[in-house]
Design a protein that fits this description.
Layout: E1 2-4, E2 18-21, E3 24-25, H1 28-40, H2 44-50, H3 56-61, H4 65-74, H5 76-80, H6 86-89, H7 95-113, H8 121-134, H9 143-148
Antiparallel strand pairs: 1-2, 2-3
Length: 169
Amino acid sequence: MVDADPQCQAERTDLYCLSNILGTPVNPAFVKAVWRVFDNMVSQQHINNVTGNNKTDEFYYCLTLGDLWTIMQADWPLIRDMFATDSILGFTFTKTMFNDTMRVIKETRNELFHSNPIKDRKKIVDACERILNGLQFHLGDYDHDLGAAQYVRVPATVARAQRHVIPAR
């Protein structure tokens, strides 16, 4: 199932030397990026979620946006096939375009997580739509479901105090 890179030393059993996973050739940078995530995984819940057979999807749920981006950059020809062809998209979806798009998404993620307003909403919407369109996933497919959704606010369990008020920036 897994083949070692012939350039790796024969006596090494280093998993970083894999060159083929389930019949798909992968480059060493891809393998290194994936194993880096495992090496840095500290949450016992994440470790339990990805340990065992048939846990591939669970691995992706445990990734940070940065980890996912690093893995995807590491073997662009392999990852590019996940996206629709250029003829379907109507433009050339290059690694540079992917990186530029991911940079916009990551910068906006950081703005939100640091309680800052989104600087350029149109830019982030365009970036998200470009990725989703590339994956042939369209939010319009969910218009009916989203239109029927109802939000119910859960009442607070702690009385709001002055210290809970976040001052405007």
